[in-house]
Amino acid sequence: MENMKTKIAALAGEKSAFKNFLLKYHGERKIQGLTVEMAINGARAVKSMVTETSDLDANLGIAYRHLSLYDVNKDLPKAPGGNVALPEGAFWLLVTGEEPSEEEVHGLTEELHKRHEVPKNVLDTLDTLPLDTHPMTQLSVAMLALQKDSKFNQQYQEGMKKDQYWVYALEDALDIIAKIPTIAAKIYRRTFQDGVVPAYDTNLDWAANFAQMLGVNQDAGFKEAVRLYLMLHADHEGGNVSAHATHLVGSALSDPYYAWAAGLCGLAGPLHGLANQECLSWLLDVQKQLGDQRPTKELLTEFAEKTLKEGKVIPGFGHAVLRNTDPRYMLEREFALTHCTHDPLFQLVDACYHAIPPVLLKQGKVKNPYPNVDAHSGQLMYFYNLKEQNFYTVMFAVSRTLGVMAQYIWSRAIGLPIERPKSVPLEELMNLAKKH
Ligand code: NMX
Ligand code: MLT
Predict the structure, then answer these.
(1) Which of 67, 94, 110, 222 could form a disulfide with 53 if both were Cys (CB 3.0 to 4.6 A apart)?
(2) Helix or strand or coil: residue 310?
(3) Which parts of the chain span the membrane according to its record (predicted)?
(4) CB-CB contact of 432 with 424 (8 Å)
């Protein structure tokens, strides 16, 4: 880890100085005029946060630092015999801004192995929860149960200097990333299987270990699918609900465990992370109603119209920022076209890909009629026998840990202050609007 620390240390001074320069010499400059609509509609598209790790372009999708997801997948180190970029490599890129070498990714995987043990109190806490507790609730509880071991918090109590914040943020980040696959596997096994978690294997990479511990499929294809999933969902800049919640809570210097617990509760919302669970439920429901009929564009058009008539959203379509098909969806589609074209659920997803955008366009109010990643992820997991859709947001969370932790490290490294936007009552907004 010394290598990663050296890279952050070198950059942190430079970036902090740059932030201070911007504040001192350009702090009063206007970058955007705010409107009443922006204040009411959740500050959509208002450039009002700093996030170093990734940037979301409405048409091109997310870039991890300077790299598109296609390039991340193509250029970053792979597992032996694999074709998918390792998520550990994505974390390295998000944190350091550099593409890691094979050796650096291997070193990171080894570091995570050293830290993977989950304290007994956390496993015991999970075992006190009723089995019908939603897996995301279980994960949030586990994150808080882990918090007592926060090195950031411990150092803060002992008077840690500001320039050391990122050092202990990194320590906590690595601990959380190392432990979360075992915690998630424990949640899966106790909620849906026999409660026994297959052994952690230090010969495997981070994602393959997670796939192994879920215990649903020993197929090498499943390990690749999990690597892809965990690499693709890792980061989506700072404004999405879970990253923003993590950032907000972290800005109060709550440690990474507290901050990510808050973010996890946001990820559990149906318009955000939970959409992939809802999406699979919608697909399975359609599949049931289709019976023996082949899923055609015409039939799927009917189902989509029916969902809209019932006043519901079609899960997995649309996005708050994207105005094009999500590259994460396209990469999952490419994977499915290689590994599971014969899967009936893939054929249904494929029919949706062609049928739903025209239906949403015709309805006329959706800003982005194209699929986001959630419209595909569930099919891949289902294909490999991970069938319990209530668990899917936990998969998302394991992956997103990489991005929010990288963001947390950088927020502390450049000394971002407590976040505290000004809010006004509607009446005041009216008065302000009249003045301009
Ligand atoms: N199906 C039906 N209606 C939709 C959909 C959809 N998939 N997407 C947007 N709309 C509606 C939306 O509810 C709103 O209606 P109203 O004016 O009556 O309130 C209108 O279209 C305009 O919404 P937009 O500005 O296009 O979307 P917004 O930025 O408000 O919301 C989402 C973005 C993602 C919340 C929205 O597209 C949605 O609910 N999609 C389905 C759920 C989903 O897939 N979420 C996953 C997000 C990605 N993730 O990974 O977290
Ligand atoms: C995400 O991955 O966080 C979602 O696509 C939602 C978002 O970016 O707003």
Answers:
(1) 94
(2) coil
(3) none
(4) yes
Residue type for position 39: A
Instruction: Give SS3 for 62.
Output: strand
User: Per-residue DSSP letters for 53-66?
Assistant: SEEEETTTEEEETT
Catalytic residue flag (residue 127): no
Per the annotation, the verdict on 134 as an active-site residue is no
Give the three-class secondary structure for 358. helix
The string of DSSP codes covering 178-211 is: HHHHHHHHHHHHHHHS-SPPPPP-TTS-HHHHHH
Tokens of 148: 């007592």
Exposed/middle/buried for residue 343 (C-beta within 10 Å: 0-12, 13-18, 19+): middle
pLDDT per residue over 144-202, tens digit each?
Answer: 999 999 999 999 999 999 999 999 999 999 999 999 999 999 999 999 999 999 999 99
Domain at 275-383, CATH class: mainly alpha
230-260, pLDDT tens digit by residue? Answer: 999 999 999 999 999 999 999 999 999 999 9
Q: Whole-prediction pTM value?
A: 0.95
C-alpha 242 to ligand 2 mean position (Å): 8
The tokens 């190392």 sit on which residue? 178
Dist CA 375 CA 373 (whole Å): 5
Q: Is 354 helix (H, G, I), strand (E, B) or coil?
A: helix
Instruction: From the CA of 374, give the closest atom in ligand 2.
Output: 5
- Give exposure, 237-250, as e/b (b: 16+ Cβ within 10 Å): bbbbbbbbbbbbbb
DSSP secondary structure code for residue 273 in this structure: T
Contact predicate 63/322, CB 8 Å:
no
326 in catalytic set? no
